[in-house]
Amino acid sequence: MTEKQAQEIMEKTIINGTPHPNTLEYMEALNISIDVLGADYTREQLKNWILCGKYPFLIPKYWNRDTMQYEIDKDYDYKFTELDDMPDGWRKAFGEMMCEEIKQELIRCNYLNEYMITQIKEKYGELRWYDSGTPVDCKVPEIIDKYSMLSRNICIICGKPDVPITDNGWISPYCKNCFTTPTDWYKKEHPDKIDKFIKAHGDYWEKCNNKQCSRMIDSYSVHTWSKDKGDETITYDISETANKIRVKWRNEYIK
User: Fold this and answer.
1) 3-class SS of residue 34
2) Counting Cβ atoms within 10 Å, is residue 94 exposed (0-12), middle (13-18) or buried (19+)?
3) Which DSSP letter does residue 56 get?
């Protein structure tokens, strides 16, 4: 049994909540898991191992000055992946969806094993996904741009789509519930001001919601110039992905 086959069996075990029906296969997969992760691995490590099996570019790498190249730390134990740096809301909404699109494109251009993420973060209320570059004909940059555009109207906390950007000390998209919910620290430090907090934040959220379009965009345009074609405007239709995110949210989070 290969490591990838073991990962697939362990993933089914997690999803179903029961051991794999074939006891011998399950035990072999379990032994491979122990060999890789150690006998006392956590559920989080197991999930990360499975995730990195699907998307190898999520394994963090470091610059080795001796070999002058990026490498995986020999002590890497799957306690974290590059995707952990993506804000929770965006990861819920489209994290693995985005990874799958990038993976398929990397396979198409035969660059899956060479691709490397250098940083994932939020900046000015938008997803930033930086990498080490791709071949000229690879469309990974377009995939990144698409999800960066869509992230502008997806709650950074819970992942709800079609919400406004707020600018209340920190520019980020929030749904009304997340924006008006005081943090645990605030509840502890200002127990007498909670109602006032909710009212003030609710009024400000409504102001932001009415001030701008809160829906995820359906398309965006990029202006380019080349010696052969001169000025050119390319329009990308991203409505299909936007609708997938909406459907995913309705199916998984609306009770």
Assistant:
1) helix
2) buried
3) G
What is the Cα–Cα distance from 32 to 18, expressed in whole angstroms? 18
Query: And the tokens for 105?
Result: 């494109």
Q: What is the pLDDT of residues 83-132, one digit of tens each?
A: 999 999 999 999 999 999 999 999 999 999 999 999 999 999 999 999 99
Burial, 21: exposed, middle or buried (Cβ in 10 Å; 0-12, 13-18, 19+)?
Answer: exposed
Task: Round to whole Å and give the CA distance between 175 and 164.
Answer: 7
By CB atoms closer than 10 A (0-12, 13-18, 19+), residue 240 is exposed
**For residue 131, what are the β-bridge partners?**
117
Q: Are 147 and 105 in contact (CB under 8 A)?
A: no
- Give Cα 161 distance to the centre of its chain: 14
Count of residues for the chain? 255
Q: Which two tokens stand for residue 169?
A: 């000390």
Identify the three-state secondary structure at position 182. Answer: coil
DSSP-based three-state secondary structure for 234:
strand
Model confidence at 2: pLDDT above 80: yes
Structure tokens at 92: 């819920």
Compute how many other C-beta atoms are within 10 angstroms of the C-beta atom of residue 10: 21
pLDDT surpasses 70 at 145: yes
> What contacts 24+ positions apart, CB below 8 Å, involve 207-211?
208/164, 208/165, 208/166, 208/167, 209/163, 209/164, 209/176, 211/164
List the alpha helices (DSSP H) in the chain: 3-16, 23-37, 43-54, 88-90, 96-108, 140-151, 176-179, 184-189, 194-211, 239-253
Query: Which residues is 64 bridged to in the sheet?
Result: 69
**Beta-ladder partners of 10:** none
